[in-house]
Amino acid sequence: MARSVLVTGGNRGIGLAIAREFARAGDSVAVTYRSGQPPEGLFGVRCDVTSMADVDAAFGKIEAEHGPVEVLVANAGITRDTLLPTMKEETFTDVIDANLTGAYRVAKRATRGMLRLKRGRIVLVSSVVAMLGSAGQSNYAASKAGLIGFARSVARELGSRGITVNVVSPGFVETDMTAELDEAYQTQIRKNIPLGRYASTEEIARVVGFLASEDAAYITGAVIPVDGGLGMGH
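User: That's the sequence. What structure does it adopt?
Assistant: Structure tokens below.
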């Protein structure tokens, strides 16, 4: 039976691959996006996750189109990389607001319908950087690490209502963003990855799809690394 699925930041990269994965499985998929055009074949809603009014309006449109959201994938996020001594306060707080507080906003809104249904799946997209750290990304790492504590707390709150909350933690992934990195830097990165390559966006998407499936009904509060071994031991 088709479920109502929402993927935030689902118009490109990892988010788009996740949305396509659910659509292939026969689910009714909506994506939020901040700029550009919605992906073909998916129900797109323009939404800035730093605005609760935007989030509320987006959910209203999605619920009217597909019914209450049964699967939420909080993927929307930004980077503002700067070394700490020169990082402005808004550079730190903007990233926290989009990546961490944004996930809070959409998860809070999604639980309204999930609690009524007495079922639901929430998957938060973190990063290997959450546990490993990365120079120049103290804001991004803090936001992605915060998702883990948030997810595990909410998993304890909502488990008795049939709602699971899990985290997927990707490493380096083949996207337009990583393609722009200097080739020498990319070679250096690959040397540190035991599998010696980047992930495809589809490899991340399949893990998210699994966590939202019946096969993962007894998994909650978990952090699943999909990083080629880069972050092992953390």
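Helices lie at 13-24, 52-66, 89-117, 129-132, 138-158, 176-179, 183-192, 201-211.
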